Request: fold
Amino acid sequence: MNRGVVLALLALSSTVAIATARELSIGHAESSAAEAAAQAADWPEAIARARAAAEAYVPGSPWPERGMRRLAAVGHGAEARGDDASALLAYGAMRTAAIATHVPSASSSRWLAEADEGLARVAAAHEDVAHAPAAAQSMREALRRDRSPTDASLVVLALAAAATLGGLAAIAFGPPGPRARVAGAIAAGGFFAYAAVVLAS
Reply:
């Protein structure tokens, strides 16, 4: 195997490992800080820290889920005591974190739906009884239109990235010739498809 390719793979692996460790550390620290702030009834601090924990996404990490649960708890508690400002802040933070860490999974979709429902509920709370359901529904529809990226775009991004990396790997490890040119075309196509989806989003 080419020595340069081996060094590049080692560098990539080290970068991924360091980034993963960093996100896990951030998630743990922010989750603990959110719990402490909630115990002290410092709602803005609890919301900010819980959002940071929710956005420290690494597959398999427990901290994003705990951050989302804390945001949900703060939002529901604020609604119960009539603190609309804190409720809106908590649900808005939950929505932002869900979109920022969105992957095609039931968990991220569940939190996004709960955040949208909470925002709609609080927004409609001050409408009169006759208009409250219509106001809530209008808010839900507006929030749905604002969601991004979609699961389909994430799948396309994943396939485009795989095509690019696969093509580059075939060029690096394979012999020169027609196959290398095909691999180059696949890598270029994957790159341009990835860029197109990102720009469109």
Observations:
- The chain is about 80% helix and 0% strand.
